[in-house]
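Email to the structure team, subject: Prepilin-type N-terminal cleavage/methylation domain-containing protein model.

Hi all, the expression group asked for a predicted structure before they design truncation constructs. Nothing fancy, just the tokens so they can compare against earlier work. One-line instruction: predict Prepilin-type N-terminal cleavage/methylation domain-containing protein, return tokens.
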Amino acid sequence: MANRYLETVSVENQKGFTLVELTVVCSMLFLVVIGLYRLFDAGVLAYAFSDNQAEIQQNARAAIFRMSSDIKNARRITNGSASSSLALETPGGETRFYLNNGKLMRRINTGGVISEEEVAEMVNYLWFYDIKDNFVKIIIETGKGSNVYKVETAVYIPDKDG
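Reply from the structure team: attached below.
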């Protein structure tokens, strides 16, 4: 009666994988997963870099657009030498652009009422030069670390008399 539970099993009739086969397959699968992870990680890094670069460029473009539009609407430029700030005589008073702790600021003085607003952030460098009554050149550099974007432009104040 005890022999009834003991049966001999032939190895030739067994179906399945050996331990060596399973180890090889697991190793190959591990290498494929590592490769896919590296591709995914590179894609995430590329996306983050391009998103950061777009933000930096947008900051510079917005700053140049805002300064250009205020300069074009001004009567004249009141500071006559190259500097990191620009003062404009406007129909309502005075507007000044300046750099403050990495932020481009716009200060408006209209009849003694002073208001300030942030025009752009992540500004590393701002320079106004070649200043005349109706002309100025502007250099602005925005960015973080080694990822920087530099814009240079010239703006004229149109002749409002004719």
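DSSP finds one helix and eight strands in the chain. The chain has one domain: 35-156. Ping us if the truncation boundaries need rechecking.
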